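can u do me a favor
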């Protein structure tokens, strides 16, 4: 069963493009994914990804690419991102 992961980071003003670039680099490991930006609050960027399973999502957390990019993302954020993992009913 595939799962969808919604990540909701809030980015510092003026750092939106930097975050989008880094998130796009992480998308190479996904089945599919997309980035969305709130029309009301440009500092809210949603990353929606599809994984084969929760186990695949958890395994991806330790990937070399993710471990390389995540430390570059953290300083761009105003708070820790919110994660929601969901599956189709």
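np, heres the sequence
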């Amino acid at each position: 069963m595939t799962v969808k992961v919604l990540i909701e980071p809030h980015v510092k003003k003026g750092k939106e493009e930097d975050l989008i670039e880094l998130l796009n680099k992480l998308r190479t490991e996904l089945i599919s994914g997309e980035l969305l930006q709130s029309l009301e609050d440009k500092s809210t960027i949603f990353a929606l990804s599809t994984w084969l399973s929760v186990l695949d999502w958890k395994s991806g957390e330790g990937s070399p690419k993710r471990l390389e990019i995540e430390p570059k993302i953290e300083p761009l954020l105003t708070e820790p991102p919110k994660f929601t993992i969901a599956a189709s009913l």
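DSSP finds three helices and four strands in the chain. hope that helps!!
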